[in-house]
Amino acid sequence: MDSRHVSGDARHLHDKVQIAAKILVVGHFAVGKTTFIGTLSEIPPLRTEETMTQAAADVDDLKGVKGKTTTTVAMDFGRLTLNDRLVLYLFGTPGQQRFVQVWEDMTRGALGALVLVDPQRLKESFAVMDLVEKYGIPYAIAVNHFDGNQARAESELREALDLLPETPIITCDARDEKSSAKALVSLVRYLQSRTRQEQR
Amino acid sequence: MTAPDEQEPESVGLVRPYVITNGREIADGDRFELVTLITAAPDQQQKSRLDPEKRSLVELCEGGYLSVAEIAGHMRLPIGVVKVLLSDLAEGGHILTRAPVPAAQLTDIQVLQEVLDGLQARFG
């Protein structure tokens, strides 16, 4: 296990923590959400489950292999204590339409979302894009590099995903801490500029 | 790196979730959000009288604050079940909650700035 991860008894938050902020890491099945969260989290990523009324949900899988049938949907999440009073939670959320119940809970109070995209499987991102937009969550696109795959040109991606001109597109490697942190920073900067504009 | 995706999500245990919650659905689901912070109340005289699940929940929260999502993750219980347990425990005075973001006191702009500063300090 990574040494950054606190273990056992150290998993509680600092007593002074006042603010729990939430950022979503969304994307299709096996796009790298849990890898991204695990790379940045100070605790080993945890899994929570929400019982679904509908059966047959794919549980996200790092190996990108077989889905499995279950009546629950899993969300993996991680935690980052950013200062004495502020903790940031990163929630990995699957993007299928049938997970709307989970999205209700997940999006409430979220600052924004990082949409992980695999340029080779763009079509699979459409459902998650629909959900993010439906719930009005401000987002940035993070193109997760996979070995040997060339990212599509930004303009092509922008067109394919029908992005606003101001929506940031960042490339990142979910396995790399600096690269993942940079993607998160870009999202937060974008959220700041949006909030400032709204206040004008 | 840990890969929770490779783990089989464990079952709730020997009883089905609605048994743990005495057949109740979430009455006030809005009261607890995924990132509502929970800690055990300092005085726990009555703890031994609690159901096993509630007692373990209180014990989990004795060391400090944890979010609702973390409690569910550590206890391997669905979020909905944890919310019911928390609701009962709050009523009985066993746990204390800290609301997610004291919205009136802090604007999004301030929170975003702190998040940004924190990320940059941490990851350079």
TrEMBL record, chain A:
Pfam families given in the database record: ATP_bind_1
Gene3D superfamilies given in the database record: P-loop containing nucleotide triphosphate hydrolases
Keywords, comma-separated and alphabetical: GTP-binding, Hydrolase, Nucleotide-binding
Similarity comment: family membership: Belongs to the GPN-loop GTPase family.
Protein's UniProt name: ATP/GTP-binding protein
UniProtKB/TrEMBL annotation, chain B:
InterPro entries with a match to the protein in the record: DUF742
Superkingdom of origin organism: Bacteria
Pfam families, A to Z: DUF742
PANTHER family the record matches: DUF742 DOMAIN-CONTAINING PROTEIN
Protein name per its UniProtKB record: DUF742 domain-containing protein
Organism for this UniProt entry: Streptomyces johnsoniae
